[in-house]
Specification:
With 701 residues, the chain is of the alpha/beta class. Among the domains are: 2-163 and 399-444, 3-Layer(aba) Sandwich (Rossmann fold); 182-380, Ubiquitin activating enzymes (Uba3). Chain: B, domain 2 (Arc Repressor Mutant, subunit A), CATH 1.10.10.520; 470-547, Structural Genomics Hypothetical 15.5 Kd Protein In mrcA-pckA Intergenic Region, Chain A (Roll), CATH 3.10.290.20. Helices cover 31% and strands 15% of the residues. Helix 7 packs across helix 13 (362-378). The longest helix is centred in the middle third of the chain and has 24 residues, at 327-350. It is globular, with a radius of gyration of 27 Å. The two termini are 20 Å apart. The relative contact order is 0.12. The structure holds adenosine-5'-triphosphate (ATP) and zinc ion. Adenosine-5'-triphosphate (ATP) binds at residues 26-29, 31, 49-52, 57-58, 74, 97-99, 118-120, 123, 399, 615-616. Adenosine-5'-triphosphate is lined by residues 26-29, 31, 49-52, 57-58, 74, 97-99, 118-120, 123, 399, 615-616. Its main location: nucleus. Belongs to the ubiquitin-activating E1 family. Pfam families: ThiF (PF00899), UAE_UbL (PF14732), UBA_E1_SCCH (PF10585). The active site is at residue 175.
Length: 701
């Protein structure tokens, strides 16, 4: 109640604070801090939404939660804890996803300001769209290790969350994952795919079986056939996707998929283990061209590792998360995890659901760690501890409580500015690890970044060009891969522009017959304009189709945010010096940093494997005023028009590696595995601070 005491805030602001209604989206690391700050600043009318429950690993930084709250709703517990600071406040908690249909535009319109404290792009994109529609200012925040960011998003005034391109996720070719892994991450990705094939949402391009079509495996045609042909290979064993069974009565070939097969085996650990780590590897060995310049894999079989079968008891080593398990230990962990996951899956399946992989779910994580390590062993790749695999599989950058607290503090200060309509004081702020040349740890942008006129979300009439192989992409893929996964719609409807022809309906079963049709069969061809809309997001987008014939390994589509990008770009003008750069140029640069080099980025059906983006690492950090301009920009799969790129792109982890002083800090993960993780911190002497950095940011009046 600190700020509720008269005199702490200027009188007019105090009144505004008291009267306003705010929504906090996300009750995690930043969200808890934001809620606490809001209540202590005198906000009375608050709603908070979070879909998750409290995990043990949250407790080291989400201070509204305690041990007794583990397993309970984050939103509800956050509400209860915050009320203890001010029992008179009115706080409504929603234990729900912000993307759920009941939180439509009218819900968002109830609020004066929305503070988002999320951890994934899909939810952020959605909140961005809802706030733009509802015309409610959004204070968007994120942290990634020591880096933090707060920015205002306001329709017509600032850029929106989707105005700037997001960095492409690191990808791996499918055949590397399936046939020729050479790094631990390849095996980890494979293991996550295996999880999905068995228990998760089955994704076509997440096959885990050997890929006989791998170009590297092709020798002279007849040789290749002999090398990989299921019938001529001696044991007749084929990879799972091609596994066929003779129907005894009529000789029909019945194809079985991995999931069904595993179920039919009653999830027998030995059989599954042998299939994935012995038979499939033997099959790979027969693709002899793969191994002419590579070390061939060495299959392992269940009986040699677990001669006496498995035990029901979790052995001691299974909980030693910093230990690098032996391959025998992996086999034990595999068997136990498999048992638990199979039971959970069958239960879910009965309700028409599947499991989704979660690094904090013990059997799911055990399964991936064990399978990844067995595969690493087979391919002579360094094995990793469960702890290390968790951080790689979860794409984790340790969360730092202090960064969250600073970021949340700035969010609430920005809320004060918004309530007073002091827009010019709402510039984006970046929290940094080291002071910049001006001695700033908290670096505000030079000016408010205005909207991108070509933004496919906040422009007046949003439009994109979609280069797509209309002869190879089906309507279902247009919906799932382009509209939902890439353009972040939730329930898209698609019409042929200017006609009443509904190609895709969000109503169940209305256009199901179109799902399996190729686009060109539906007359979606070069030059067609599709009118897409998402009723829930109140979002309309025109898609101009530009057909191209994709080569075998090409992506089948790519989204181009500006038609000009289809033309080759000219050599860009020379880089301006930092001093010469106007604020506008900087903004341009920020927008284009990732689009320029990479060209139009893509998502595709037969696409390389992406490291999942389920955890937040999309913090954008601009280090201004340094000699070398450094940008850290994590972005997604869209590109915008190419503009001069003068910044060096680095991933947060790479940026960290350049720090000199190394301090060991405790990782933010499970208590039981709270071993030291290397993170780097530079020593900062007070004398280095030439300017009080806070003066730039704490600017309440
Ligand atoms: N669609 C959504 N609707 C509501 N809340 C969401 C949605 N997506 C994510 N969140 C919430 O946003 C919060 C983000 O907080 P944070 O980044 O600290 O993640 P966390 O899950 O608590 O921690 P960690 O990922 O490090 O284990 C989480 O509590 C998460 O449940
Ligand atoms: Zn925009």
């Amino acid at each position: 109640m600190a700020a509720a005491i008269d005199g702490v805030l200027p009188g007019t602001l105090q009144e505004l604070v008291k009267k306003s209604k705010v929504l906090v989206v996300g009750a995690g690391g930043i969200g808890c801090e934001v809620l606490k700050n809001l209540v202590l600043s005198g906000f009375h009318d608050i709603e908070i939404i979070d879909l998750d429950t409290i995990d043990l690993s949250n407790l080291n930084r989400q201070f509204l939660f305690h041990r007794e709250h583990v397993g309970k709703s984050k939103a509800r517990v956050a509400r209860e804890s915050a009320l203890s600071f001010n029992p008179d406040a009115k706080i409504i908690a929603h234990h729900d996803s912000v993307t759920a249909s009941q939180y439509g535009v009218s819900f968002f319109q109830k609020f004066d300001v929305i503070l988002s404290a999320l951890d994934n792009r899909a939810a952020r994109n959605h909140v961005n769209r809802m706030c733009l529609n509802a015309e409610v200012p959004l204070i968007e925040s994120g942290t990634s290790g020591y880096n933090g960011q707060v920015e205002l998003i306001k329709r017509g005034l600032t850029q929106c969350y989707e105005c700037t391109p997001k960095e492409k996720q690191r990808t791996f070719p499918g055949c590397t994952i399936r046939n020729t892994p050479s790094e631990p991450i390849h095996c980890i990705v494979w293991a996550k795919h295996l999880f999905n094939q068995l228990f998760g949402e089955s994704v076509d391009d997440e096959d885990i079986s050997p890929d006989a079509a791998d170009p590297d495996a092709q020798g002279p045609p007849q040789e290749a056939d002999a090398a990989v042909g299921g019938d001529g290979d001696g044991d007749g064993k084929k990879p799972m996707e091609e596994k066929e069974e003779e129907d005894a009565t009529n000789g029909n070939v019945v194809r079985i998929n991995t999931r069904q097969w595993a179920k039919d085996c009653d999830y027998d650990a030995g059989q599954l283990f042998n299939k994935f780590f012995d038979e499939d590897i033997n099959y790979l060995l027969k693709m002899s061209h793969l191994w002419t310049s590579r070390k061939p894999p060495v299959p392992v079989s269940w009986d040699t590792l677990v001669p006496e079968g498995t035990t029901d008891v979790q052995p001691e080593f299974a909980r030693q998360h910093h230990k690098v398990w032996t391959v025998e230990e992996c086999a034990h962990v595999f068997a136990n995890a498999l048992k638990e996951l199979a039971a959970a899956f069958l239960k879910q399946e009965a309700e028409g659901e599947t499991l989704s992989w979660d690094k904090d779910d013990q059997p799911a994580m055990d399964f991936v760690a064990a399978c990844a390590n067995v595969r690493s062993y087979i391919f002579n790749i360094e094995r990793k501890s469960r702890f290390e695999i968790k951080s790689m599989a979860g794409n984790i950058i340790p969360a730092i409580a202090t960064t969250n607290a600073i970021t949340a503090g700035i969010s609430v200060l920005r809320t004060f500015n918004v309530l007073q309509a002091k827009w010019e004081q709402c510039k984006a702020v970046y929290a940094r690890l080291r002071p910049n040349a001006r001695g700033q740890f908290l670096v505000p942008d030079a000016s408010l970044a205005g909207p991108n006129p070509n933004c496919y979300v906040c422009a007046l009439d949003p439009a994109i060009t979609l280069r797509i192989d209309t002869k190879r992409v089906h309507m279902k893929e247009l919906r799932d891969d382009v509209l939902i996964k890439t353009l972040n719609m939730l329930h898209p409807d698609v019409n042929m522009m200017g006609t009443a022809t509904i190609l895709l309906s969000s109503e169940e079963d209305e256009t199901t017959e179109n799902d399996s049709k190729l686009l060109h069969e539906l007359n979606v061809v070069d030059g067609t304009i599709l009118s897409c809309d998402d009723f829930h997001q109140n979002y309309n987008l025109s898609i101009i189709i530009s057909h191209f014939n994709a080569e075998r390994d090409d992506p089948l589509f790519e989204v181009v945010a500006d038609a000009k990008q289809l033309q080759p770009t000219k050599e860009q003008p020379k880089k301006e010096t930092a001093e010469e750069e106007t604020a506008k140029a900087k903004e341009e640069r920020k927008r284009s940093a990732n689009g320029a080099d990479d060209g139009p980025s893509t998502s595709k059906r037969s696409r390389p494997t992406e490291i999942e983006d389920d955890d937040d690492d999309d913090c954008l950090v601009i280090e201004e005023d340094n000699d070398e301009d450094v940008m850290i920009v994590a972005t997604d799969n869209l590109s915008v028009e190419s503009t001069p790129k003068t910044a060096i792109k680095r991933k947060p982890s790479e940026a960290m590696e350049e720090e000199e002083d190394i301090t060991e800090i405790l990782d933010s993960s499970d208590e039981e595995e709270a071993g030291p993780t290397k993170c780097k911190r530079s020593r900062i002497e007070p004398s280095d601070l030439k300017i009080d950095p806070l003066l730039e940011v704490i600017n309440i009046d």
